Amino acid sequence: MGYNTLVYLILFLPAVLLVYQLVPQRIRKYILILAGYVYFYICSKWLVLYVFGTALFIHHIGMWEDVLKKKCAAEAKGLERKEQSLIRSRYKRMERILLIFGITVLLGVLGYLKYSNFFEENLNLLAAAMGRDPFFVVTKTAVPIGISFYTLQAVGYITDVYWEKQSAEYNLGKLMLFLCFFPQVMEGPISLYQQTGEQLWNCRGLTAENLSQGAVRIFWGLFKKLVIADRLNVLVKVVFDKETDLHGSVVIVAAIAYTIQLYMEFSGIMDVVAGSGKMFGIILPENFRQPFFARSAEEFWRRWHISLGVWFKTYIFYPVSISGPVKKWNRFAREHKLGRHLTRSVLSAVCLLPVWLANGLWHGPRWSYIFFGIYYFVIIMAEILVTPLRDKLLEKLGINENSRGYTAFRIVKTWIIVVVGELFFRAETLTRGMQMFASIFVSFDAWALGGAGFEAVELRVVDYIAVLVCTVVVWIVDYLKEKDRISTEKLASLKTPVRWAVYYLLIFGVIILGAYGAGYQAVDLIYAKF
Amino acid sequence: MQKRSEDGDFEKNRAEIMSNKKAAGRILSFLGILGILLFGLSRASVLMNRSVHPLFNYATSGIFAEEKESIDVLTIGDSDVYSGLIPAKLWELSGITSFSWGEPAQRPPETYSYLKKIYQEQNPQVVFIDVNHLFRDEKLSDNLDSITRAAIEKPFPVVLYHRKLDSFQNFLAQDYTITKGYLYRDDAKKPKMKKNHFKETGKITAIHPITRWYLERSVELCRKNGSSVVLLYIPTYKEWTYSNHNAVMELGSELGLPVLDLNLEMQEEIDWGTDTADYGYHLNYSGAQKVTDRIAKYLEDNYDLEDHRGDPAYQRWQKDSEAFRGEVEKEILEKERREKERQMQGA
Predict the structure, then answer these.
(1) Does residue B330 fall inside a structural domain?
(2) N or C: which end of chain A has fewer CB within 10 A?
(3) Number of domains within chain B
(4) Which distant-in-sequence residues (6+ apart) come within 8 Å of A204 by Cβ?
(5) Host H or E run for residue B128
(6) How much is the pLDDT for A522?
(7) What is the DSSP pairing of strand B126-130 with strand B98-102?
(8) CA-based nearest distance A203→chain B, Å
(9) Each residue's pLDDT tens digit, B270-283
(10) Residue ranges of domains in chain A
């Protein structure tokens, strides 16, 4: 049950809202938990037990960590400082073992369900290459929806308790709701316990303001998903599914189309998710902040799938950057006067490599995703490495870094980086991605655009016009958001006739222009499979 | 002191109730206007599609322009139906009046609701229910989605017609159709052939209980109206599997219905190199002709349907069938001309 389906928008969400409002306040949280589990059940049947098991597991690990912390404090009480620190370090070690155990189990389940086939298949390929029988019989494992999202939330929670950023939660219900709030189970955003844990449990009553703002956000999301993304999908699918040689020009158009599709799709669904949350008065963390205004790849990732980036930064980048070897390198570099640039570059490389490997792998067990991660690692490292050189060059040429022209140049450069990245991301296999990329340089033929390249694309001229005009509309809205000239609050302050006209325009835009129903194929949510 | 605070509470409650009332009023008026706009747009979309029936496939709605109770055989289902059966040819072969009712990606709840509509005007003796569309909604959520859609399409046909809102020429179109639902296509695109496509297996595809429930309602409705029902699997290389076949056979024996799986029966006759318009999803004209021949024979062998050829009351069918043939011949000539032109350019 994707968030763009009628059954979600017309049956499920209104039904939950209605029941939520009708029952007494103290029962509302249980309605939300039930709704989450029903949602999960509808999508993944009995695999719903996984998410319940995860809640139960982190509930125990959290309490266990808390018991150790309390025991440590009790034992250390009244002792001398030296003995205190001995006891503390003993308990810290136990806590660390517990944390590692917790993370291993959580990631182990994720890894087993999502990646075991990939490793088995690759080891079998290796065996075949060595002329031996396959090592494994590869069987399909059923994967519960959203496992990559709720597992990260679970790991985040137990790590925060370990770091004492968060006190252990003794209320199992709260953790269950934190992991299974139905608007976010399928595609995130990945939230930290501090962000949504308490908020969800408070269960305020519905208000007209929240309902209307939530609904507007939902329709805005549907506009992006149904009008633009699903229409572009027709073109993207035809080109990327082709197995024959493609002209470079066709590849470029398809890669740009896919990049737009992915943005409209993912950010659109995130709008539906945020809007659904808002209807209950829940503010979910934002996942997008006008990514196509980023001036570098690094900045792009601070604006695109933000909650994933924040998670990686908090739970991978940060721990690695304060780990023993990195500290040693810092000391070594300082002692040997290696200079700030080199020190920082090596440090970044060491901390960013695991982040980007994890990013690639997180998207799924495919070589093209791993390549995608490494691609960004290389690009971002290059950005860091050339910074001093670039600064010098700019100074010599007398270019102001913040000038409009230079900013525009950087933005366009980032677009190119992103489009190439998405080309590999979407290609069926890594090899196919390489072939398609190479064709840009080997067989570029602009005339192919009018002919053979898109002949199987069942889009009419009006479809292309709709995509173009609506993309421009989204771009303008993003621009106004970037300049802080538009927001739901500002929209709410408009005069009623104007505001309602905007709402009706949006609603009918979706109904009339949406690429849904007969004549179009329903498009599954791209991020739901990650 | 206490009184004042009570008064204060009262005032606050009153203000809250007033503001809630105001908000509720605003929401209701917003929804009211939305409803009116939706209704108006729905009317417009219906006009643009020249049909009072909320259907997407324009030709399909032509059944309501036919004379009452004049159709002998109805085939209903998804796109396979309008790609696979040619009523004009069936008339030529055996003088039977038939209609190919198919909507793209039609779902069983829609089949049931369309059937109810059709029975208000027609009373076919034989109803072929296409089974391919029983395998579309595998999950509970897909089934619920189809039910919701079938429910919304009725009051607000714009949800169904929206794609055609730009086709102003439909204002001028007629409901009545000589194709009787059939969609002519002459492309021939060969699918990737699989080695073990027709290899027997014991596996049985699960049909979702909701899908089955709607099918049973449809069958019940047909039986109540005295129609004989046949489960028909129109050849589709891409979507047919042996385990689907097994599921249909099982369904047929459980519901006491004959099954005609042309995928298996016609595997020698259908040439997937020449008979499909789009890589094995749908049949083209050449494939549909073969299927229509087979259906004509099946009807002759199993049912005692009257041959209306020569009956003055059915003159229009004779004319329509000739007109259809003329249109097809024109299309074929046009295609040949295009081919020649392309060859000339190539040379």
Answers:
(1) yes
(2) C
(3) 1
(4) A280, A281
(5) strand B126-130
(6) 59
(7) unpaired
(8) 19
(9) 999 999 988 898 99
(10) 6-205, 207-284+436-530, 304-426
